[in-house]
Write a structure and sequence with these properties.
Blueprint lengths: L2 H28 L6 H22 L5 H20 L4 H21 L3 H5 L2
C-alpha cells in the first residue's frame, strides 16, 4: 500500500476514534449545546464518514476519491463546529478533524492509478 494512502487511513481511523470518544465521553456528559441536534448530527456524520472512508481505502476501492472528498468536507465542518466550544476535549477534536480534512483533501486528488505507480 502506498504510504500516502496508509497515512490517510490512519488519520481517518484516528479521527473516528477521537470524535467518538469526544461525543460519548464529553459531549453527552456536558449536555446543553454539546448535544444540540445540529452539533450531535454533525459529529455522528463525521464519525461515520471517517470509518467509511478508511474502509474504502483499505479494500482498494477505485471510488476512494469520492469518500475522501466527502470526508474532507464533513471533517472541516465538524472542526469548525467543535472549535466554537471551550475546553481541551473540544479543541483536540477540532484539531483532529481539521488534520483529517487536510489529509483527505489531498487524497481526494489522488487517483488509484497514481497510487499504484507511486
Amino acid at each position: 500500500m502506498n504510504p500516502s494512502m496508509q497515512e490517510c487511513i490512519d488519520t481517518c481511523v484516528n479521527c473516528h476514534r477521537v470524535c467518538l470518544e469526544t461525543f460519548t465521553q464529553h459531549c453527552l456528559k456536558m449536555g446543553g449545546a454539546h448535544v444540540e441536534q445540529q452539533h450531535a448530527r454533525l459529529m455522528l456524520d463525521c464519525i461515520q464518514i471517517c470509518q467509511t472512508c478508511a474502509d474504502f481505502m483499505l479494500r482498494g476501492s477505485e471510488l476512494h476519491q469520492i469518500t475522501c472528498n466527502a470526508c474532507a468536507e464533513i471533517c472541516q465542518l465538524c472542526a469548525e463546529d467543535c472549535a466554537r466550544f471551550e475546553g481541551d476535549e473540544m479543541r483536540r477534536c477540532a484539531e483532529t478533524c481539521s488534520h483529517c480534512a487536510q489529509v483527505c483533501h489531498e487524497m481526494a486528488g489522488t487517483s488509484a492509478r497514481e497510487l499504484a505507480f507511486a
